[in-house]
Specification:
The chain is of the alpha+beta class. It has 13 helices and five strands. Strands 1-2-3-5-4 form a five-stranded mixed sheet, sandwiched between helices. The chain starts with about 25 loop residues before the first helix and ends with a helix.
Length: about 375
């Protein structure tokens, strides 16, 4: 997700990289498999997920005993994954069954951590790399970020399907993940009041995912259907969600949404159309780079697919004392969302389609 991206594509020419997933045609994006409404969680599946999280909690406890031993942490996660895969084989579950997806979500943390280490290695090399090597390293980092995005997308779908059930199980999942990340990377923690690097990154993932879940539910309440981008569109194009127009006719133009979240919870909704002016007035250099990367991508995407595409930036950080999106389940407390904010969001989504045109429209 865009919040955890370690670098910006303004450093190189990322969209010279040909990737089918980056420019996937709209008719494939807006298919049922990418919709955030496509499967219901059965009671037995919820129980299986609960059992997996119990195992993850035990792994987090043992990871504390192996504090800093990355190989042992990975082994703990992989051993549990193998055990669950054996159970699935015995039950003759299909290769794409929801239970397999749950195993990948829970114990796929091993791969998430390994990718984190690999990304940091490449980022260190970037500091002294020449231009050609830098392009190669950026390409490797793009691939890593896309894999992380895919794992997070599975988690988003899972949380939406859970529909707010098993709150205690989800609390245990988030806490176990944070504890494992801390055991893996405890840099920068100097006191009990500070977060380690691992804890901070775990919370960035958590609230990035919950932001997507909450936003999908807010859009649904407003009559819009949201779809997941491809992992490449998320990691490189900075699109967190695609939004189908209310009339379901994407040929008339559609919107990509980039979300801003924080580790302090989701406490408001404000939206802006993504254009050059929005990017120039970003509150930080990092935010400016994110917005410019999205703007460049949607222009390229529109030109390649001969369709009008627009960007909307939604800030979910807010200043309210209360969270509008539950910090565990992703469910939205609409009593805390002001009607003015919802009306503004609709206005911006509709305004975006009448805003700056992609290159195909001006041709």
């Amino acid at each position: 997700m865009s919040q955890t991206e370690p670098i910006s594509h303004s450093q190189v020419e990322p969209f010279q990289i040909e990737q089918e997933g980056l420019y996937l045609p709209p008719e494939e994006i807006f298919s049922q498999k990418n919709s955030l409404e496509y499967f219901e969680m059965s009671p037995s599946l919820l129980e299986d997920f609960e059992d997996m999280v119990i195992d993850l909690k035990e792994i987090s406890r043992r990871a504390k005993e192996e504090f800093g031993s990355r190989e042992k942490i990975i082994k703990l996660l992989r051993d549990s994954k193998i055990s669950w895969e054996e159970i699935i084989e015995e039950e003759q579950e299909g290769i794409f069954s929801p239970k397999r997806q749950a195993v990948e979500i829970v114990f796929g943390l091993a791969q998430v951590l390994e990718r984190k280490a690999q990304r940091e290695f490449y980022l260190d090399k970037l500091a002294t790399a020449g231009e050609e090597e830098k392009k190669s390293l950026i390409k490797e980092i793009d691939a890593i970020n896309a894999q992380d995005a895919l794992w997070q997308h599975h988690l988003v779908v899972w949380l939406i399907a859970m529909g707010g059930k098993k709150r205690e199980t989800l609390e245990n999942f988030w806490q176990a993940m944070e504890d494992i990340f801390h055991s893996w990377d405890h840099r920068f923690k100097k006191s009990t009041d500070e977060l380690s690097q691992g804890q901070r990154e775990a919370r960035q993932i958590r609230f990035g995912v919950l932001g997507m879940v909450g936003m999908a539910k807010i859009l649904d309440r407003l009559g819009y259907q949201s779809f997941l981008p491809t992992p490449e569109q998320d990691a490189q194009g900075k699109v967190d969600l695609w939004v189908l127009p209310k009339n379901k006719n994407w040929q008339e133009g559609f919107v990509g949404v980039q979300l801003k979240t924080s580790i302090n919870g989701i406490r408001g909704v404000s939206a802006r159309v993504v254009d050059e002016k929005t990017a120039r007035h970003a509150v930080s250099e990092r935010e400016e780079k994110q917005l410019k990367a999205m703007l460049h991508f949607i222009k390229d995407y529109g030109r390649i697919n001969q369709v009008s595409v627009f960007g909307v930036w939604v800030d979910l950080t807010g200043t309210s004392e209360y969270e509008i999106v539950d910090g565990v389940t992703g469910e939205v407390n609409f009593d805390r969302v002001s009607q003015e904010d919802l009306e503004e969001l609709v206005q911006v989504l509709e305004q975006a389609k009448g805003g700056e045109k992609s290159e195909t429209d001006s041709a």
